[in-house]
Design brief:
- By secondary structure, the protein is an alpha+beta fold.
- It has two domains: 204 residues, 2-Layer Sandwich (BirA Bifunctional Protein, domain 2); 48 residues, SH3 type barrels, CATH 2.30.30.
- Helices cover 24% and strands 26% of the residues.
- The protein is built from six helices and twelve strands.
- The strands form two sheets. Strands 1-2-3-7-6-5-4 form a seven-stranded mixed β-sheet, with helices on both faces. Strands 11-10-9-8-12 form a five-stranded antiparallel β-sheet.
- α3 packs across α5.
- It starts with a helix and ends with a strand.
- One of its GO terms (cellular component) is cytoplasm.
- Pfam families: BPL_C, BPL_LplA_LipB.
- Keywords: Biotin, Ligase.
- InterPro entries: aa-tRNA-synth_II/BPL/LPL, Biotin_CoA_COase_ligase, BPL_C, BPL_LPL_catalytic.
């Protein structure tokens, strides 16, 4: 697979394409442990066989129809925003790249959704899509290593509806690509947009970190919604998503008027009155 647009746009990023890969994040961890990387590196595959999501979940993909990437960021300079912003910035970058084709939105903290009733979508909302507040088109998984940060992304590009897991969607099943659209050309165009925007946002995190809450909030479908936060220990918190904290936390206002900052949780969008 060639990346003409990507290499023209992201001249300072080395790109490595893998014909097949268990997990691009795991492969990136192996690479940076074996050979220290002083500049950004991007791994790409269209055949990831053991993708991972948050909290050890499996990321299901259709080989040859999906795209998996891992971007290695060696470091954040002194004075930059907290690294907890990196997953949100990656999500915003991917959302804005995908908006070339569909009205993508970010669901805090790491899901990229297409609204349930978007014109052209070729499947009906199921319970999982309804809980999320949209069909899942892509996801972000960020991991920290001793030498930097790995920003993983999985994107459903050409997967037909019959091969999609519950609650998911692809660009093709949104009616956003031509039937004969080749994966390579679509991947090149999308990655060029994504990496360029990611680099711009990471630069903003260094030069103007105070702008990050506004930038992320503008793409965040979760804000203004009544949500249930399911914590890693199983506890739940329900409230209206009001904004973002200094480290990217989701601020919920509970029914008694108090607010709570959620640093890590699964978020369900609730109907008012639920």
């Amino acid at each position: 697979m060639s990346f003409v647009q990507l290499l023209q746009t992201a001249a300072l990023v080395r790109v490595q394409y893998l014909e097949t890969c268990g997990s691009t994040n795991a492969e990136m961890q192996r690479l940076v442990a074996a050979t220290p990387q002083l500049a950004p590196l991007l791994l790409v595959t269209a055949a990831q066989t053991s993708g991972r999501g948050r909290q050890g979940r499996q990321w299901q993909e259709s080989p040859g129809n999906s795209l998996a990437t891992s971007y290695f960021l060696p470091s954040l300079p002194p004075g930059a925003a907290a690294p907890t912003w990196i997953p949100l910035l990656a999500g915003v970058a991917l959302v804005q790249a995908l908006q070339k084709w569909v009205p993508a939105q970010l669901k805090w903290p790491n899901d990229i959704l297409v609204p349930l009733h978007t014109a052209g979508v070729q499947r009906q909302p199921d319970d999982l899509a309804t809980q999320r507040g949209g069909f899942k088109l892509a996801g972000i998984l960020c991991e920290q290593t001793a030498s930097g940060y790995i920003i993983g992304a999985g994107i459903n590009l050409l997967t037909p509806v019959s091969q999609l897991p519950p609650g998911a969607i692809s660009l093709r099943s949104c009616g956003a690509t031509a039937p004969e659209q080749p994966l390579a050309a679509l991947a090149d165009h999308l990655l060029a947009l994504y990496v360029q925007r990611l680099q711009e946002l990471l630069a903003t995190a260094t030069r103007q970190p105070e702008r990050l809450p506004e930038i992320v909030a503008a793409q965040l479908a979760t804000l203004g919604q009544r949500v249930r936060a399911i914590m890693p220990d199983g506890a739940t918190v329900t409230g209206f998503a009001q904004g973002l904290g200094a480290y990217g936390e989701l601020i919920l206002q509970q029914s008694d008027g108090t607010t709570v900052a959620i640093a890590a949780a699964d978020i369900e969008h609730l109907r008012v009155g639920a």
